[in-house]
From TrEMBL:
Pfam families: Glyco_hydro_16
Position of the signal peptide: 1-26
Protein name as annotated: Concanavalin A-like lectin/glucanase
Residues covered by the GH16 domain: 43-277
Keywords: Lectin, Signal
Lineage: Eukaryota, Fungi, Dikarya, Ascomycota, Pezizomycotina
Origin: domain of life: Eukaryota
Protein's organism: Morchella conica CCBAS932
InterPro entries per record: Beta-glucanase-like (IPR000757), ConA-like_dom_sf (IPR013320)
Length: 353
């Protein structure tokens, strides 16, 4: 059996249970329509670090991040090219004050070992199309030389990868959007149309919601729910996993590692997505929950998410009806956080029963 995000399965089970209680309306069992792009996805997932306990006080981090695997793998150094080794470390990932922190530990002028870096990979490896969002900032401690790469990306292999990356050496507003392959080793040239640099309106050391939407033939990039760039070249065609990391290896992309600490501070990760199974209509858990709720013709089994350009997804409106032309006069729409709050409250009540 392919791994799934347990929280989603849990939600599906809870939601299908709810439908046998007559006074409870169906809620999103059959998926989500993003009204601004008119794309439909079967699943959603939120990891909200606000409110999670500080792991610096001895709370088990692995248990706080059940949907993610904290990496401990190492890349070897290459003396010939000057590439430094890098070591992903458990101690470079922690939760404090409602933020998930990933760290490239400052690499001093006299350091000779691997650069200590951080990486989180989703346990789910079968994302197949989706809208992937994370609200974060990147902070390089002042007075540093060198830099670091902070990445939020989808990965299967070097031929199926979509990246959002901050390179701290490139100025405080530059952000890189890439589909791989973006470089032709044989001819030593860039692949036209596969890599772009976008200038943010505000520096990346302030919180932004960074987002990429992956659908067939299109990678669309967003900042605070504004679509700032599209890439149609080398759009992944294979299922993959989601990764967040901070790293440097003295190579040409990262440059020399930052001499001071570099942090990626994440407030939440939120996504709407299909899996390989659900995209093909073969996700039995999903199909059963949807059917049990009355199928996708039943009001409320499909939810409509209207993201607000310029705002984070916390301000998105979730509705049980397709929106009418003028969103301002729409009835029945609720702030997403309100709806999630109601679902959470019902879950708590069910738990008590
Ligand atoms: C995270 O939780 C906080 C506090 O409950 C809430 O204000 C915020 O809207 C939540 N964010 C998301 C993305 O759910
Ligand atoms: C933390 O929890 C994980 C998963 O439950 C477990 O495998 C690990 O041993 C725990 N680590 C510590 C230090 O308790
Ligand atoms: C980093 O790479 C350069 C070559 O690009 C090399 O001269 C330098 O020694 C390397 N730095 C370290 C710390 O190995
Ligand atoms: C590096 O080593 C030299 C010689 O021992 C010392 O003078 C210098 O202060 C060290 N630099 C750092 C950043 O530790
Ligand atoms: C991206 O593609 C979508 C779908 O074709 C289009 O509606 C949108 O305007 C494009 N965005 C940009 C920034 O070109
Ligand atoms: C993605 O992976 C598939 C299967 O390995 C491969 O055929 C394809 O070329 C890769 N890249 C893209 C952009 O489709
Ligand atoms: C997601 O999967 C469903 C099938 O369950 C399909 O109808 C839909 O078009 C897929 N969404 C995207 C954006 O590929
Ligand atoms: C956008 O965000 C601002 C600041 O959080 C908030 O005051 C405003 O109501 C939001 N607008 C919408 C349309 O959600």
């Amino acid at each position: 059996m392919k791994p799934q995000f347990p929280s989603t399965q849990f939600l599906s089970i809870i939601l299908s249970t709810l439908t046998i209680i007559p006074f409870t309306a169906a809620v999103c069992e059959c998926g989500y329509v993003l009204t601004t792009t008119n794309q439909y996805f079967t699943h959603t997932f939120t990891n909200n670090f606000t409110g999670l306990p500080d792991t610096t006080t001895g709370v088990n981090l692995t248990r706080s991040l059940p949907d993610w695997e904290i990496q401990e793998y190492k890349f070897a150094a290459d003396k010939k090219t000057g590439i430094l080794g890098r070591q992903n470390a458990m101690s470079s990932v922690w939760i404090k004050d409602g933020l998930l922190h990933l760290l490239q530990k400052g690499y001093g002028a006299n350091d000779t070992g691997p650069v200590q870096v951080a990486e989180l990979q989703s346990i789910n490896q079968n994302f197949f199309h989706g809208s992937f969002r994370a609200r974060y900032r990147v902070v390089q401690v002042k007075g540093a030389t060198g830099g670091s790469v902070a990445g939020f990306f989808l990965y299967y292999d070097d031929q199926n990868e979509t990246d959002i990356e901050v390179l701290t050496k490139d100025g405080d507003r530059a952000i890189h959007y890439t589909n791989h392959p973006s470089y032709e080793v044989a001819t030593d040239t860039l692949v036209p149309g596969a890599a772009f640099t976008h200038q943010l309106a505000r520096p990346w050391n302030e919180f932004h919601e960074h987002r990429f939407d992956w659908s067939e033939g299109l990678s669309a990039f967003y900042v605070n729910n504004v679509n700032v760039l599209n890439i149609t070249k080398n759009v992944p065609t294979h299922e993959g996993k989601l990764i967040l990391n901070v790293w440097a290896n003295n190579g040409s992309w990262s440059g020399p590692p930052s001499s001071n600490d570099v942090y990626m501070d994440v407030e939440y990760i939120l996504m709407y997505y299909n899996t390989t199974d659900s995209a093909a209509g073969n996700d039995e858990v999903f199909n059963r929950a949807c059917e049990f709720a009355g199928g996708n013709e039943q009001r409320g089994t499909v939810c409509y998410v209207t993201d607000q350009a310029g705002n984070s997804s916390v301000d998105s409106v979730m509705s049980l009806d397709a929106p009418v032309e003028d969103a301002a006069v729409r009835v029945g729409g609720v702030q997403m956080t309100t709806l999630l709050g109601v679902v959470a409250a019902v879950v708590v009540v069910i738990g008590i029963l």
